[in-house]
Specification:
five-stranded mixed beta sheet, alpha/beta, bis(5'-nucleosyl)-tetraphosphatase (asymmetrical) activity, 28% helix, 247 residues, 12 strands, Purple Acid Phosphatase, chain A, domain 2
Length: 247
């Protein structure tokens, strides 16, 4: 039994509210534990844009690496932060600047700890998760059915960024094809990456990025019940960040 959480993007308070709504207890150990043994699954993009990225990173590290009571797979923002920590040349914009500002405010001791924790979390994470004997796939931006089980560079690009065409929209965002419309696999694919006003189910796919950091909601999908559970965001609404699909 899993509770799959959409893109958090530093919205730590909403994460606490959502896990409590799902029945998780924070009081016993200081991190969310479910009395029925349900397991949290993170779809990536823990950081950037929101107010408390480091708190989100640290709690997910605690759950996944130290306590081994949750699953995590990275998103494109996680990938970029990892490259930043490696010392690669990345552009500190599109949200990374908020995480870097939080990081720069830390003591050198805390910087070393946060960097070490996040790098370990990222390095140990699979490109996408295959759970429940392969019946459930959790991939940040989704995955084509014929890519499941593969990890080539082409698959990595798809999982992190979606079905991009290489072109850009007038606002600078990449043009993405609606891959979920063509999905015909047997496994359920749960993903985020593209903010939508409400959880979107099409074929055997669910998009649960409901744009918490843009003033929408933070959403979880309960599996195997396939029941979405959302809490409202405390952030201001940025309507143009949400994508509408022709169904």
């Amino acid at each position: 039994m899993y509770d799959i959480i959409g893109d958090i993007h530093g919205c730590y308070d909403e994460f606490i509210t959502l896990t409590k709504k799902l029945g998780y207890d924070w009081n016993q150990k200081g991190y969310p534990i479910h009395p029925d043994g349900r397991i949290l699954v993170f779809v990536g993009d823990l950081t950037d844009r929101g107010p408390e990225s480091i708190k989100v990173m640290e709690i997910v590290y605690k759950l996944v690496i130290e306590e081994k009571v949750a699953h995590y797979t990275p998103g494109n923002h996680c990938d970029k932060l990892y490259r930043y920590f490696l010392g690669r040349k990345v552009q500190i914009k599109h949200g990374l600047e908020t995480t870097v500002a939080e990081y720069d405010a830390l003591s050198s001791k805390d910087k070393a700890k946060v960097q070490s924790h996040f790098m370990k979390l990222f390095e140990r994470a699979p490109l996408y998760l295959q759970l429940d004997k392969g019946k459930l796939v959790v991939a940040h931006a989704g995955i084509r059915h014929d890519y499941i089980g593969k990890t080539s560079n082409k698959v990595k690009t798809f999982v992190l960024y979606g079905d991009i065409t290489g072109e850009t929209n007038p606002d600078g965002t990449p043009v993405r094809r609606d891959w979920a419309k063509q999905y015909s696999g047997d496994a359920w694919v749960i993903y985020g990456h593209t903010p939508v006003e409400k959880p979107r189910k099409i074929n055997k796919t669910w998009n649960i990025d409901t744009g918490c950091v843009f003033g929408g909601m933070l959403t979880a999908l309960r599996y195997p019940e396939m029941e979405p559970v959302s809490v409202p965001s405390s952030m201001p609404k940025v309507s143009e960040k949400f994508r509408a699909f022709d169904e």
